[in-house]
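Here's what a typical entry looks like (SGNH hydrolase-type esterase domain-containing protein):
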Amino acid sequence: MRPQIVLFGDSITQQSFMPGGWGAALASNYCRKVDVVLRGYGGYNTKWALFLLPHLFPQGSTPPLAVTLFFGANDAALLEGTGKRQHVPLEDYKQNLRRIVQHIKDCSSKTLVVLITPPPIDREGRREYARSLYGDKASELPDRTNEVTGMYAEQCAALAEELGLPSINLWSKMQQQNGWNKKFLIDGLHLTPEGNGFVFKELVEIFDKNGFSDLPHDFPLHSEIDSDDPESSFSE
């Protein structure tokens, strides 16, 4: 059986197998070496994600080779905005992430866990998106701000450093590029094809540093099959 990379997160993960998505790109990049398993849950925060752990990562099952944890965009929703039901206090967010990591590591200390911070927020892009859905009835209060989301990204990155885990600070790295808001974000939050490509590139760098590019293919390549005696090629 092939080893697995499990993508665990919110809607940004759920959408990662859409055309041009970073999850689909990973599946293509490591085809016949790793099965990329999508476990994205739109709208979820880290509090709700905790209830999924015994189902997604049960004790005693074959542990995944790696897990990406991509939460925070919903945790950072403002209490006074339309996403208030998704809000998780900053310190709770960090502790929830810690509990998720600990559960995965309790299943297998060898599983590579990669923490990904929420991306930056384009407030105007969020406002335009709300107006496209609700017109004049759209709330004037922002559901998220870049400043608050940055605080959550900082805590995610800090936890990764504390635990010695690789991480991708999307909030910081994306904003280093000019025009990041339109280049990387389709609605002020979710990813454009270029945004997906950005996540993919960062993850491949981490995975390949951990030897993923050297993983063997499952079963022989067609060029290695003995056409006169094909059974012998599958005997080992």
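DSSP finds eleven helices and five strands in the chain.

More examples are in the samples folder.
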